[in-house]
Each structure stands twice: as structure tokens, then as C-alpha cells.
Amino acid sequence: MAAKTVLNYLPRKSVVHDLTGTAKLVFFLLFTFASMITYDTRVLAGLLVISLGIFRLSHIKISEVKFMMVFMLIFLALNNVFIFLFNPNQGTEIYGTRHVLVHLFWRYDVTAEQLFYHLNISLKYFVTLPVAILFISATNPSEFAASLNSIGVSYRIGYAVSLALRYIPDIQRDYHAISQAQQARGVELGKKEKLLRRMKNSVGILLPLIMSSLQRIDTISSAMELRGFGKNKKKRTWYMKRPMQRSDYIAMALGALLLAISLGMMAVNGGRFNNPFL
After folding, report:
1. Which of 82, 119, 232, 276 could serve as a FRET partner for 72 with CA atoms 20 to 30 Å apart?
2. Residue 270 · residue 38 · CB < 8 Å
3. Are 90 and 79 a contacting pair, CB within 8 Å?
4. The pTM is what?
5. 108-111 vs 100-105, strand pairing mode
6. Alpha-carbon distance 205 to 102, whole Å?
7. Is 3 helix (H, G, I), strand (E, B) or coil?
8. How confident is the model at residue 253 (pLDDT cuts 50, 70, 90)?
9. Which of 207, 35, 56 is nearest to 124 (CA)?
């Protein structure tokens, strides 16, 4: 059975996949900026609906991106915990009121303002996560490199990013192949083994994985050097670059509109925060 990979391109026939890399990059940047600059729950809730709707249009299954979602949810949980541990009164300082719901110990009180602040922090993650996953999973690496170059990024940097994105699935496949070979030799890496023992056995995979990775890097760099890559500083052409269509302009216009709404609500609220406690 083939190894499951993460952070890789998942080809589909969908509206999202049909967009050019440039349109997806511009929309991703505008949408992310719109969600990051505001803490208005109403704006974040609206962006969340749009984000989930776009994810549904992509025809990518949640099971295919489960690892990235679980990783981000764990990171979100840790982020919320550390925010509360280091500054349990952050919400009170922001909203200017204090409604204690539960007293825990010492200076740690669970306040309505702090919970509301954590809600907005969590919404930000839930808003940007589907779009970020889609941008990686619905964009061909070569097309992504072309999109970077089209907005002014050096083609050498764009190509390096493209190679990195293509290389991630290769590393995962190599890890899986080496893992299977180790298990065939009697090294237990399955769930039957204790966690610490499995971690220790997994270290034995790193050396052959690093050696195979270095060999592949040397092969690719030699091939690029022989072809004179990077000698010409002018712009290059891209095989995967496609002309902009009507749907691309609509996507970019939607991203600009969402950013304008986010900025407009900041002007209405007089800042980044909407205060429901006043």
C-alpha cells in the first residue's frame, strides 16, 4: 500500500483547481491578511463560512488532509493554553471590563473577556486553515513557482520553492520505504511496541533517509548546473503558467472585497476589536 503523504498536490476537477496559480496566490494573501488584521467575531464568522465553502468546492476530502488539520489543532490548543498561562488577563486588558466566571487559583480567573478573546484567536485559525491547506493541495508546485515569478519574485527563488514542495512527498515515500525495510529486518515500529522504543527505533531511519536525500539533492543540483540554471537574470518562461481567465479575476476581486470589508469594520469599531461587553 502506498504511503500517505502530506503537504502535497492533490489533483482534482474543481473550480478551485481550475484557477491559475497567480489568482490562488493573490486570493490567499488577501484572504489571510483580511483574517489576521481583525478580531471582530462577526467578520471572522463570515470569513469562516466562506473558507469552508471554498474547501467544499475543491472536492478535497478531510481524510486526505487529516494530518495537517490535526497538527494545526494541536498547535491551536497549545497556543491557547500558553496565552492563558502567561497572561490570563489579556481579555480584560483589551475589552476594559472584567466578568469573572470561575476562580481557579492565584491570579488565574476564567473571565468572559478572556474566553471571548480565545474564541477570536481560535476563529482565526479555523478561518485560515482550510484556505492554507487548499493553497498547498490545489496548486501544482510548478504553477506555484510561476505565480511567484509573476508577482515579482525571482524565478530562482520560485523554482527553489517549487523543488521544496515537490521534495516533501519524496521524503515521506523514502521514509515509508526505509521503515518497511527496517520492519522486515525485525525492527518493530508498529503500535504494538512501546512509544519510547518506537521512537528509538525510528532514529535508525534518519541516517539512510539523510543519505538518500543528500544524494537526490546532489543529482538535482548537478543537473541544474549543467543546464546553466540561474545564469540569466532575466525572467524566464513557464510551462505550467496559464493565461488569466474570468474566474481568476473574480477570485482576486473577492479577496480584495473581503479585505476591504475587514478594513471597513476596523474603521467602524475604531480598532481591531469589537467589544460586546460595553
Report:
1. 276
2. no
3. no
4. 0.77
5. antiparallel
6. 48
7. coil
8. very high
9. 35
